[in-house]
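Q: I'm teaching a short session on how sequence maps to structure, and I want students to see two examples side by side rather than one. Could you give me a first protein with its sequence written out and its structure tokens following it? Keep the formatting plain so it prints cleanly on a handout.
A: Of course. Example one:
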Amino acid sequence: MRISIIGGGLAGVEAAYRILKAGIDVDMFEMRPNKMTPAHHTPNLAELVCSNSLKSLDPTTSQGVLKSELRALDSLVLKVAEKTKVPAGGALAVDRELFSLEIAKELTKFPNFTLYRREVFDISHYTIIATGPLTSDTLANQIIEFTGSDNLNFYDAAAPIVEFSSIDMNSAYFATRYDKGCADYLNCPLTQDEYIAFHTALVNAPRAKLRDFETPNVFEACMPIEIMARRGLDTLRYGPMRPVGLNDKSGKRPYAVVQLRLEDKAGILYNIVGFQTNLTYKAQREVFGLIPALKNAVFSRYGVMHRNTYLNSPVVLQTANASKKDNRIFFAGQLTGVEGYMESAMSGLISGINMLRLINGQDFVSPPIETITGALCSYILAENKNFQPMRACFGILPFLHDVKKDLRPIAYAKRSEEAMDRFITKYAL
């Protein structure tokens, strides 16, 4: 028996790892570098496109709970992320290149793993399709024909990355909000006049032309900063440029602050946090150069905006990400309508578990809805006329009415841990 996995992103590698551990042969198909996408920059497996942050480690946050669940399920992505992490306060951020290289290293340890660098044009049995939101047009059309349901689309954006040596450290300072934990973030303050000049330039700057759509649907969680800025003069000051808890070198609160997060272990590159953008490259240099600490910034990577594609999952999928049309065909990752790095890895892991159960003649399983994993799996299958991608959040869990509001995060985390433990024990996972 050989299982095909189309796509070498987070979901694909997670599914592969699960199946390989069971001794089943895996053929992985990744079209890069022979055919690149609008957002990828390397041929590496599990390349992190939008950010190097996998979000909070706090076990009482929804992202922290999801990580705890994935740790219990032996997630490859989480294991490698923790091995290649860089300082990021309470978040789990990684050195992107080391992360991708380590993922490949782990998979190639298995003699039953084969990687093919070519595009796939058809859908066959015993296949997990994990091509992500940037699925090629050819395969996307095949998926539409196979499922009988059109894909939905929205636009996603990534933030630029700058070289540390080009940042003016006379203007910038290291700090973490409210001095909690290590001072892992580099902060670039602006005065009121500097902020107003920056905001004015930002909302009037030229944007790169998008292919396919003139007025794209933009996913709220990845809102380009120039679009966010158009909502009002102070929108950014209450969002990604919020200065609260980030006093400057003199102990005073700046009018606004731009935060930068470490990109690599060597400390060479920094990501501009929350600055997803679709400005032209020239405009990015000019507008972001109005931030005093970034006036001479050298861009290692510019921000980009690209189309994301996902399935109408409530219509085409059944339990465990299996196709309603043919349960030997699974989908995984952002293509199913989960949104986020760890969410995508989780989806691939669930598809991998259930592909193994299919091979062994067992029923499909999904974690309890009291877990973030189970709640996300349930969400993408729920009937919804306006189906939109979903990230990990406590709002999709069964509500705890009898617990006080400030105690609910701890209660959600405890309930999730207990439910996941029972699930793993019951199915010997």
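Q: Perfect. Now a second example for contrast.
A: Example two:
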Amino acid sequence: MKIALLSEKYTPDIGGLAISTERLARLLASSGHSVRVFAPTGNLPPSEKRTLPSGGVSVTRFGAHKRVDDTLVDWFEALVAEHRREPFDILHAYFLPQAGFVAAYAGKYLNVPSVVSIRGNDIERAAFDPSKFSHVMYALQNASAVTTNTSELARKAKAFVEREIFLIPNGIDTERFKPMERNEPLAEMLFTTKATKGHEGKRKEERSFVIGFVGELREKKGMRALLSGYAQMTKTRPASLLIVGEVREGEDKKAFEEFRTSNPEYRIIVTGAVPHKDMPAYYGLMDIFVHPSLRDGMPNAVLEAMACGVPVVATPVGGVLDVLKDGNNGVAVNVNDAEMLAEKILELLDDSEKRSRLEKNARETIIEKFTPEKELEANLLVYQKILEEKQT
């Protein structure tokens, strides 16, 4: 098959959407299919287009415009032009408002089956934006098939349109993401040169516990609960807070810096962007992984931490409901409950036997249910179904 994959983000862009889109593209290419990715970028002038190979996938990036409608026109026309040069069998979009709309519209225009995949904010936020609502609804109503990665998002999609929603969870490479020995040179670099204000230039000889967070830290990801919970627990048990990623610019960054300035005694390390291939070493530094999100899709970071055998403390929102079983393979905490977050972290730090049990069960969960092979197989079954329907 020749597959056009549309996404608003693609590596080296930051975030779960970019990671998930690249993962699917590479899975499809590795199974013998021809994959062409189309994704806008702010790194090129508007309308300028470049196509380069990347990991067996042909990736076309084109410059985004300030006006979204101009970007969508370029996206549609690039897709149509490539189809006329060498026809696609399937158009598959990740995220509804832009990619999903373009794929569904182009699919009907070109008489090519289209798939749109719901990833999280496209239903949970964009659908409430009047400027995006019509694009969301068009994609849901006109795509040949709709997929999503969580049961919760499937239920929300059916509140908009009554149709079959295929559930395809994210897959994690458990050969790459696996338990590993602590990388001492990396720890030395992070906890001495990237220490918090008040600790800069100092060498901390004793090994303290590390509480980890992965992703772009912002309010939606539970930033206030994370910082407050960390502040409460560290009064009882000193620990470092390792944020692998960045803090979102704007109000979130301002609030974060105010907290850090007001509490110079806390050891908070922000790594900045980290290549995805290097992530296992960072998970290996963590004693506990926390994900106190207010709402979410299927967070790759939670699955990766579990695959790496790191005990997970997370809020039961979105896709976390599908993967984390409280007390069995992780620990659930209430949304926006800093006190409970601190309490559960401390309980785990004090109970090495429970940590070991959660680590083992978490990895087994990922190996059993959340593999790339299952993700690829499920997508191919959807493609086969809509291609057969087109022929009848």
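Q: What should students look for in example two?
A: Point them to this: Residues 307 and 363 are 4 Å apart (CA to CA). Also worth mentioning: The chain has a mean pLDDT of 93.
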